Records
---
Amino acid sequence: MNQRLKAISALVPSGTILADIGTDHGYLPIDLVKRGICPKAYACDVAEGPLSAAKTNIASEHLEGKVFAILSDGFIQVPEDADCAVIAGMGWYTAQAILERAEERLPSFRRIIVQVNGDTDLLRKWISDRRKTIHEECMVNDRGKVYTAVSFSMQEHAPYADREILLGPCLLNERSPLFLDDCQKQAELLSMILSKRPEDETAARLSRRLAIYESVNP
């Protein structure tokens, strides 16, 4: 598996039954079952092509009785015993649609782990607006691109502050070298953008984001 999937797998609690939504080739559920983290897993995808590849990979590892490939649009066909969900490798708005279609079911999951390709702050805002709990976050550099995964549950929590929504409450506490480096790069990028923009509402919003990033590495 690549570093992105390895980072996501580290957030999956031991003993949970995984539903990997948008599984592609099924690498994540196969790995978690092989290592004994999950006793059973569902590799779910809306497209027949990726699901066929997942079935081939499951069979090659002789895991047909533990990893089940399911054709499912989001959570629709996911069996009721799944108690950990992963939604990874897609844009935020696609992930948001999947979450909102399944919102009544989400409380049955011990953890929901989401990794979106950009706009992680919008994911955190979605969680915060619903007053739910972010338990863990991880940031990883995979082949030169930085990815962030967020693990949350539907347990009640006070709304997060703007700084926590932008940067991540757990990442802020951990302050890893990768996190600090990414904050510096984001600050430099915003500074460059603002130097070329007129003063308007968008510039004011970007300036507020810049101030938050700069506060990490004063």
Note: The domain at 3-157 is CATH 3.40.50.150 (Rossmann fold).
---
Amino acid sequence: MNNPPSNLQHKPLPPAAASAPPQQQPRRSLPYIIALSFLVFIFAGGIIVLLVWLVARPHKPVYSVVSAAVHHYNLTADRDGRLTADFNFTVKAFNPSKRVSTHYEALNAQLFFGDEQIASSRAAAFRHPGRSVRYVPLFLPAKNVTLYGNTAREFKRERSAGKVELVVKLKGRVRFQTGAWKSHHHRIKVTCKPAVMSYSSDSFNEVKCHVDF
């Protein structure tokens, strides 16, 4: 019997390649897991704070000066007059936020005639609940304060006319709270002008204030 042509002979199959062992996923180290968990916690906390802020966003408080009085007034007659007086104001504060209370940790009061400060004091810290009105009494004593040149003359002129225009300024730090959440500190500035002090009557026209955060 004739042998089949060589080109028709079956070639031997190559040996089966050994299958590669499955690669193992690298194991995460403990510091990596802790760092990742911390980042997730911070991110989730930030989202919660943002949602709380958007839902219960505090509104600017509304301020006005509702009464004013002066006692023990004296201004010396020399060119640079020396002013002594006890100024009393009542500031009305309204918190329009429904769910947010305001904590005033410090509130400094200043009294100006023109650009010159003539008295200052510090109001006690207080908490202001939402949708409520708070009356803040201010006692601003001027003790032998020098009014220079034109300032002294202008003060005497207005005093002789029976009314003096003053500016009340409040500066302080506040925090907002809703439930267990408290915000970081915010600086607040309140400017009330002109607060017209009348020497001829007890009447006083309420003065609206400008509020800045």
Note: The chain has two domains: 30-59, 62-212.
